[in-house]
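Before anything else, study the sequence and fold tokens given here and see whether the fold suits the sequence. Record follows:
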Amino acid sequence: MAKNKSKKTKPKLKKSVSKKGGKANGVHALPKPSSKPWGAAGKALEGVRILDFTHVQSGPTCTQLLAYMGADVIKVERPGVGDITRAQLRDVKGADSLYFTMLNGNKRSITIDSKHPKGKEILDRLIKYCDVLVENFAPGALDRMGLTWAHIHELNPRMIVASVKGFGPGPYEDFKVYENVAQCAGGSASTTGFRDGPPLVTGAQIGDSGTGLHLAFGIVAALYQRVRTGRGQRVLAAMQDGVLNLARVKLRDQQRLQHGPLTEYSQYGEGIPFGKAVPRAGNDSGGGQPGWILKCKGWETDPDAYIYFITQAPVWEAICDLIGKPEWKTDPDYAKPPARLPRLKHIFATIEEWTMTKTKFEVMEICNKVDIPVGPILSMKEIAEEPSLRKTGTVVEVDHPTRGKYLTVGNPVKMSDSITEVERSPLLGEHTEEILTKVLGYSAKEVADIKTSGAITAPEKGRAEAA
């Protein structure tokens, strides 16, 4: 038989050889591994410069994460007013609110009047200097400021322009969106709550902060691609899209529903028929394993004396032993998962009789010893006071010059060679002169002229309103 000449052979891979400032075999050459101690070789995004036009929550979440990773984030604010959240939900008179301070750590603040000719000149210089522009204005606002994609890219072809918007391209793209609107439009609210109650929004800010996380990921990917292409690009994170991504298990269930009932949902065991859309399922587990929130010792006076308990099949026998029902291990009505589905309400009520005799932490300790997955309902007070979260830098105490010490959430991503050092949020315009001189190269006389022009200072009326 003749040999198949068209048969492909696996190409041999050539070793990448580092070349100064260039490529090797089409792959970007890597430097030699650093000999510096772990955590002493600089931050992950050191050298990346972010022009931050964001405000409120979604955008600041993104830029604060980039700052935590070592990027130099320059926050542009309106003279005399600044980010609107500086004054929102203010708890200390005359000081920046926690709403602002907890979303703007590790940044520098410069005040610029974007409508002033000199202000426009400063912004153009910043665009030339920075790598990424991040904004979460209402649709079309950046263009109305004169900062169109064409203008930005003409000034700096390497600039990445990253935006948070409520909706992606389509019939709703010009609509404004806030946190709870995004949860409703992204499929979260319709699937959150109890079956016989209205849709509910979640306390986690999956619309704002969740979309900020998505945008940060997109920015880092665009920076990496730019190493290969040499040019910037636009990055869009729509809040509806971000919420849907986090609620994807419900889109999974929507498709499963076309082929029959969702057997892990408690309503199946209760004999309640399903409709055409994924229902609200209370505290049912979204992972296919039945679960519910149960009372623990002290629930009568403590609103958070509860625990989430999952009846995972591999540990069913351990559960039976713990709750004093060893006979359930062999009882045909309880031994196998399909048999348990119609009886989940009774099963969880029985488990709850046991959990009510112990604190949530005792339940957690006992269950984890036999691999039963449970989760105590932790209050924000308990989280704020948890020593382990302080030790890992997840909860950080920061000192502020006007409001004093406050708690903030540190970097949720821990890296062994890029150690986050959480710094306080900037005062309004705190770094204006520093940025003008040390970053943009303005002389002392030019800075004095800029101040006199009103391009970086607020009218007296604006200052009074911000106070």
About this structure: The CA atoms of residues 48 and 272 lie 55 Å apart. The longest helix spans residues 208-229.
